[in-house]
Amino acid sequence: MNIINRNNVRVCGKGAKTIVFAHGYGCDQSMWRRVSPSFEDEYRVVLFDYVGVGLSNADAYDPVRYSSLAGYAKDIVEIFTALDLQDAILVGHSVSSMISLLAAIKIPHRISKLIMICPTPCYLNDRPDYIGGFEQADIEGLLDIIDRNQPGWAAHLAGIVVNNPDQPELAQELEVNFCAMDPAIAKRFAKATFLADNRSDLVGFDKPCLILQCQEDLVAPNVVGDYLHQHLLNSHLQQMKATGHCPHMSHPLETIELIKKYLASNVKQN
């Protein structure tokens, strides 16, 4: 199968170094349009859609493969292999932060560093040692409403995720993307996302990582960013002025600035 066509891979830019942008749950590569063009002068920029969303090849969707985040990580591994990328920078938003980490574990020579935007290794609370922000009943309720009322859950979740009421058009855009998903794929991706526990995958991971943490993020609260920073050996935690869970949409200039500042630094991050 042609991986480039399968994942609707788009390559642009003119730099010697490659930067790859991986979108979050229920989105597609268009969500990066406010950010990725700013890297095209210095980097070769790669954008893609996970199988099952956006303009990916729907015929390639395998419900068994995509029942876990490992299946989505395999998409990244196959894209990097198809393009023969070496020492590339991988930027992941939300669940793609952990998907990217799983991919980096598989192909360490192809990925030099990770940029994690609003990441979380586990959404579920595991008291008293870990707070992810959600109780089991919260997730079960979300999965149930996906079955019963796709427009309803899409509007509800989009508002929670964006959490920028002064920019209602962003929640509307996200809602449209959620509604565009096949309901069965939406629920399966939601289960893979919100029931995942990647805390054990952090152990021993020493690739340089930038963690971008937003204010008032209802999906990945501050305590989650602190946890990741403590458990990733070579991470730098940056608290943003941005609010909500989608700074690449709501606060693109700050997102661009912080990523570029991190990448320009030759100092080992601690």
Automatic annotation (TrEMBL):
Protein name as annotated: Alpha/beta hydrolase fold protein
Species: Psychromonas ingrahamii (strain DSM 17664 / CCUG 51855 / 37)
UniProt cross-references to InterPro entries, sorted A to Z: AB_hydrolase_1 (IPR000073), AB_hydrolase_fold (IPR029058)
Domain AB hydrolase-1, first and last residues per copy: 19-256
A Pfam family hit: Abhydrolase_6
Family of the protein in this entry: Belongs to the AB hydrolase superfamily.
GO molecular function (one): hydrolase activity
Domain of life (superkingdom): Bacteria
Keywords from the UniProt entry: Hydrolase
